[in-house]
């Protein structure tokens, strides 16, 4: 795998903020999908990558959503242990720059990329060509958080009238409000849009609460000595979702079904290895990305272990398999809250067929 990632992707401190900005950008992309335009095209399956590529292997591009992190662990494991080459693939990682991975995939600039369930539901409804082919996490890792030493905030309902550090997205405002209302509160709060600056603002006491990711920001806060008090959305009535996944496009899947199946099979082996051997998988991820993860090893190991324990697998489902109930129930949540728009930016008036938004066909 030829990784074009560079040190410019951010130091370890920037990585700790990756998930929320990624989620913000995915949502923004979905709401503005009708307006974007991209130049160029991805290399086709029989086109050489040039110097550094093996001409005997089929080239495949994979777009990151941020600097390398544990969400991508199975992809790096698949490369480091030879699963991609065994499948006849030469996988090139496209580092995150300014265009969301979902847009790159939809436009044919990448064959695969990171894209979570809610992002796919919003973006495809808004006109992007996206199909989820692998669920990295089997449940939602998002949390509503306050500083752990706040004695006046012990439950979400206590947050009425307080200040929320938001991310400029109606989805995350809705998640905060629904969690508070699900605890019996009114869901009335002041919102200031700070993007990833919300974490610093929270630690400084300039806001009262924000949203975080249990497998990254929450762990970082604990390692820094000021753990959050975290509230899981689903404990207060918000439907579950498979928050992190891998997407392709209908155009690529229809044109290259064998390559798509080979890629998903190799990725599934990588994540299965990470679920069974989280420490070894973390070693491989760090070794492949020393510039961005070398100084964040404690965070990587803890995150890999938590993912293995609680997120990568689910009873009764194959690794990576889409959960139809999650897609249906969270899709209904998005629709009922008026969070779905079409390619013209107009709110949709009927729910889409969510079963068309994902496929388990490439798993086996």
Figure out the total of helices: 15
Report the major sheet.
Answer: 6 strands, mixed
Radius of gyration: 20 Å
User: What is the helix content?
Assistant: 25-40%
Describe the structure.
The structure is a single chain. With 364 residues, the protein is an alpha/beta fold. It contains 15 helices and eleven strands. The strands form three sheets. Strands 1-3-2-4-11-5 form a six-stranded mixed sheet, sandwiched between helices. The longest helix is centred in the last third of the chain and has 20 residues, at 257-276. The radius of gyration is 20 Å and the shape is globular.
Q: What are the salient characteristics of this protein?
A:
single chain, 364 residues, alpha/beta, 6-stranded mixed sheet, 3-stranded antiparallel sheet, 11 strands, 38% helix, globular
SSE diagram, text form:
Layout: E1 2-3, H1 12-15, H2 18-31, E2 58-63, H3 73-80, H4 83-86, E3 89-94, H5 101-106, E4 112-114, H6 117-125, E5 131-135, E6 142-147, E7 163-166, H7 170-182, E8 190-193, H8 198-203, E9 210-213, H9 217-223, E10 228-232, E11 245-248, H10 250-255, H11 257-276, H12 278-288, H13 290-293, H14 297-310, H15 324-336
Parallel strand pairs: 1-3, 2-3, 2-4, 7-8
Antiparallel strand pairs: 4-11, 5-11, 6-9, 6-10
Helix pairs in contact: 2-6, 3-11, 3-12, 6-15, 11-12, 12-14
